[in-house]
Amino acid sequence: MSHACSAIVLAAGRSTRMGRDKALLEIDGVPWWQRQRDTLVDAGATEVLLSARPEQMWTRQASGFAGVVHDALPEGGPLVGLTAGLERASQPWLMVLAVDLVALPPAWFTGLRADCAPGVGAIGRREGFFEPLAAIYPREFKWLAWEALARGEYACQRVAAAAVEQGLLRVREITAAEADWFANRNTPGEVRPRS
Known about the structure:
Layout lengths: L4 E6 L15 E2 L2 E2 H11 L2 E7 L15 E3 L8 H11 L4 E6 L7 H10 L5 E6 L2 E10 L2 H10 L5 H10 L3 E5 L22
Parallel strand pairs: 1-4, 1-6, 4-5, 7-9
Antiparallel strand pairs: 2-3, 6-8, 7-8
Helix pairs in contact: 2-4
């Protein structure tokens, strides 16, 4: 069964290892932010949000987004942007995609959508570690995320594990053939997605 999903591109990271804003790097002339937005649209997102920092001036000209959300806790990491997306989303599920997972195809989210159910999202896991920045979260996940943030816990792994334990997320094991999709790019030598 396929479910209507909102989506968010997480682009608020500081890209310190890359040395420049990753969202503005390009593949075949297409900036990463646009590539990720298009991936989410191709995966069936009915609206796409952008998580960014207020000082990222390029976001004012970035088209194709239903809105830009800013992290309430600037040093809180991706869990803060994810939570902001859940608060803003118009649909009961939110597809989340980090701006630097540029090898991930729309088919990944199509598969995850099939695993969703009312109040339940889906997340990939590989070698015991979750892939929280390429997952689908139900609106109900925000309560768990808020509680973690209130405790000062920003690690997505721990919150994802709690969500699985509570039945908010179903796990899809990532196959060897899919593993390269999750290679994030952190340094200038890693900017080309693997084929």
